[in-house]
Amino acid sequence: MGLYCGIVGLPNVGKSTLFNALTNAKALAANYPFATKEPNVGVITVPDERLTKLAQLVNPQKVVPTTVEIVDIAGLIKGASKGEGLGNQFLANIREVDAIAHVVRCFDNDNVIHVDGSVDPVRDKEIIDTELLFKDIETVEKRLEKLKKAAKSGNPKDVKLVEVATEILSKLEAGTSARAIDTDDDGKALIKELMLLTAKPILYVCNVDENSVKDGNEHTKRFAECVKDENAEVLLISAGIEEEIAQLESYEEKMEFVQEMGLDEPGVNRVIRSSYDLLDLITYFTAGEKEVRAWTVRKGSKAPQAAGVIHTDFEKGFIRAEVIKYADYIDNGSESACRDAGKLSIEGKDYTVIDGDVMHFRFNV
Length: 365
Description:
Layout: E1 4-8, H1 15-23, E2 40-45, H2 49-58, E3 62-64, E4 67-72, H3 87-95, E5 99-105, H4 121-151, H5 156-173, H6 185-194, E6 202-207, H7 218-226, E7 234-237, H8 239-247, H9 251-260, H10 267-278, E8 281-287, E9 291-298, H11 303-310, H12 312-316, E10 318-324, H13 326-332, H14 335-340, E11 344-347, E12 358-363
Parallel strand pairs: 1-4, 1-5, 3-9, 5-6, 6-7
Antiparallel strand pairs: 2-4, 8-9, 10-11, 10-12
């Protein structure tokens, strides 16, 4: 679908280690700043127990999970908005992603260099927030200058846009991220058009030591208090441990390791699902003897759009969709049983796909 979640943070906070755990892509993770220069892109499988349960009922020849793409972006330092470090490159890369997983270091280890000399996740977050805001302010100022020239003609639309841009600029300068600005439809459209960095949905990943994965530590408590008003999810992950888990061969070995840590599943599973949600994605399923498969669509997608994810011809020639709710499929045990129980509905072009739908498309080309 071409949607990306970018992993961002200061140098040496564990971004690349987390990326490796998520993707097994073996990105360079080194104990010095700017080990990541070019963004690494990886495709990660979205864990979903529903796919497993459907496959157990259908017993297909093949089971195919859905995926999401994630990008490990170069570390940012103070002054990035003015080109310090790899600032220009970092900001250009982050502009291209659709959502942000912001990694902050919440562990003490004298053997791992911190670019600012001490561990302080609140300060680290504020550094990145400030640099992104500075860049957004610069972006809006440039557009406002053009809008003011256009508004000299007296065109009401241009005059209104000057007012809208001025309001957005004022709020950015006051320290409000674009995602938190309360504005009208014109303002929302302008923010989207300008691809403002602080408009992107965000989740925070606290990289902790092994002993703090379940309950956190003083660093994570301070950080949680700092972001409590942002309506953003905060996850606790030990990136180093997650990378070790990812390197184990079998599912059984991985789960044994996870359970020894007192957890229910690898932490990366939570990061993946949260990234998926952050990108505003949902999953629907197709289930047949040849294949049980998970497919990704944006929330709010109509049935023809969902069909088009499988093949463009399915969307062009869409006739109808046969839909079974996941819970009904599990309760009845098969497609034929759902038909007999009246749990299969026939839906047209206006049907909005719901997360978990089991679908079969009829089309004509």
